[in-house]
Write a structure and sequence with these properties.
This protein is an all-beta fold. The chain is built from no helices and 16 strands. Strands 12, 13, 14, 15 and 16 form a five-stranded antiparallel beta sheet that branches. The protein has a four-stranded antiparallel beta sheet with strand order 4-5-6-7, with no helix packed on it.
């Protein structure tokens, strides 16, 4: 539905709001603080969302599931607070960034990351977005740079496309 939004709070809850009535439709209770929430708007995935928390876990929830506080999947390979979540490839995969200075690529529904991006010279990515062409991923690095990655054919850094001096 187009009239729904999700919000996360330091009281460790996520609320699904109806924007037309202003009423809460559902409340999801977590044991961690939600830091980032992302709807999956890919074809066949529109009833799902993922939540990155303050302590290394990413939860996948299905809005159709009546077990409100039971995630359909838990992703748990990072070692710090989750900074950003970005769906790619029509919602079949997503990218997570973390304070641990790593980027992981995940297949939705599989709890093991399929790609790990880590380098001793990397800085944590605090925010990220998918380029409108759906082939490039951009991240705001904590060393005041915007770094770019090519999604296809293999997720890899595009060193020619780094924007500095922010």
């Amino acid at each position: 539905e187009d009239n729904l939004i999700l919000t996360g709070s330091h009281d460790k809850t996520i609320k699904l709001w109806d924007t037309e009535t202003g009423k809460v439709k559902r409340t999801y209770e977590l044991k961690k603080i939600p830091l980032c929430i992302q709807y999956n708007v890919g074809i066949g995935h529109t009833d799902e969302f993922i939540v990155g928390t303050n302590y290394k876990k990413i939860f996948n929830f299905d809005l159709r599931d009546n077990r409100i506080n039971k995630p359909s999947e838990v992703y748990d390979e990072h070692f710090g607070s989750i900074n950003s979540l970005t769906f790619i490839e029509n919602g079949d995969r997503f990218i997570s960034t973390c304070d641990d200075k790593k980027i992981f690529v995940w297949d939705c529904g599989i709890s093991n990351a399929i790609k790990h991006v880590a380098d001793p010279l990397m800085h944590a990515i605090s925010a990220a977005a998918l380029h409108p062409d759906n082939n490039h991923y951009l991240g705001q690095s904590l060393d005041n740079k915007i770094v770019t990655y090519e999604i296809r054919p293999h997720f890899k850094r595009n060193k020619k496309r780094t924007f500095e001096g922010l």
